[in-house]
Write a structure and sequence with these properties.
- The chain is α+β, with helices and mostly antiparallel strands and 340 residues long.
- Strands 5-6-8-7 form a 4-stranded mixed beta sheet, with helices on one face. Strands 1-2 form a two-stranded antiparallel ribbon. A two-stranded antiparallel ribbon has the order 3-4.
- It starts with 11 loop residues before the first strand and ends with a helix.
- A hairpin with a 3-residue loop joins strand 1 and strand 2.
Length: 340
């Protein structure tokens, strides 16, 4: 890969009106550019010029080797694999100097199921190779974020039902669904990194680099809302029974209002609706104040149930606040769109 450094080139005039600039030799060699080959030129929003090879001259898939030490825990390997995945490497080889134990290979296979795209394509006694087959054009950031919202909305609703009714089976189902949210979040994050490296990808998936970052931030907020839905479901498991009726009724009502704000925030973001976004932020302030007003009553109760109810209420409040953050991003993107 060519090291990033600034080079100055003198603009020269050829013929009557044509201006030319020579290309860096190292870059030409890296992509194997020959006389007569074509390159793509793109005028960027900041006035700079982006130049890249035609599709037929694209570099080989990015490869990464992870060398394991004999005492590396499997969770350390999984963390490295996630980092490599998010960085956009297409082919990853996990190597070990000694024979790789079954637990390590199982961790690599489990990782492939955790995320979207990677598949195990080769396996030897001391190595395992994964190839990311995902196509950002087939599952672009916008689609990922919309799917995340739909999953999180039902997760939160089901988590509250599980908590209110002591439904352990439904609570476990909510917890399992959080993995689907994480997979889509990682896909969104990875695409953001890919777009930083390849601006032409932004055009193919219908976003620019600024919107790509914004979508990644929205995905992060939705992922956190999913974490709080999972947290509510875990309270349902830990209590093993219905929550206090008086407490649960008030929290459920706030939960429903929080999800209405979240849906409207998502609509505001994709429609670039500043008025609706401002209305969400104003309503959220009152809703948070209302929710915080319930805390003294919850804390006045004794026992484990009161602590659980307070924690569930806190997750609802966090959901409201994250919906507000999405509304603020909607305003920011709307103003940026008007500038363009």
């Amino acid at each position: 890969m060519v090291a990033k450094r600034m080079e100055s080139r003198k603009v020269q005039k050829t013929g009557l009106s044509t201006l030319t600039v020579s290309l860096p030799k190292e870059w030409v060699s890296t992509i194997n550019l020959k006389p007569g080959d074509q390159v793509d030129l793109e005028i960027m929003p900041d006035g700079s010029l982006s130049i890249g090879p035609k599709e037929s001259k694209k570099r080989e898939p990015l490869r990464k080797v992870i060398q394991l030490e004999s005492d590396d825990p499997t969770d350390h390997l999984v963390r490295k694999l996630i980092g490599v995945y998010l960085a956009g490497f297409n082919i990853v080889e996990v190597r070990s100097k000694e024979r790789m134990d079954l637990e390590t290979k199982r961790a690599a296979r489990d990782f492939a199921r955790m995320v979207i795209g990677p598949e195990v394509i080769e396996e030897t006694a001391n190595s395992i190779v994964l190839h990311d087959l995902s196509d950002p054009v087939e599952l672009p950031q916008k689609k990922c974020v919309r799917r995340m919202h739909l999953i999180v909305d039902t997760m939160h609703r089901d988590a509250m039902i599980a908590y209110a009714q002591g439904d352990l089976e439904l609570a476990n189902d909510v917890i399992e669904r959080d993995q689907d949210v994480d997979r889509l979040y990682w896909m969104t994050y990875k695409q953001y990194n890919l777009i930083q490296k390849d601006r032409s990808l932004a055009e193919r998936v219908g976003v620019d680099i600024h919107e790509s970052m914004s979508l990644m931030l929205v995905a992060r907020l939705i992922e956190r809302i999913g974490d709080h839905a999972e947290k509510i479901a875990k309270h349902a498991l830990n209590s093993g029974k219905k929550g206090p009726a008086a407490d649960v009724g008030a929290i459920e009502k706030l939960s429903q209002e929080a999800l209405v704000l979240l849906t409207k925030a998502m609509e505001s973001y994709f429609l670039r609706d500043i008025g609706n976004a401002n209305d969400i932020i104003d309503r959220a302030e009152g809703l948070v104040h209302k929710a915080e007003g319930l805390l003294p009553d919850l804390q006045a109760h004794n026992g484990k149930g009161a602590v659980s109810s307070s924690s569930v209420l806190d997750s609802v409040i966090r959901t409201i606040m994250y919906a507000t953050d999405i509304a603020e991003l909607a305003i920011n993107e709307s103003m940026r769109s008007e500038e363009k």
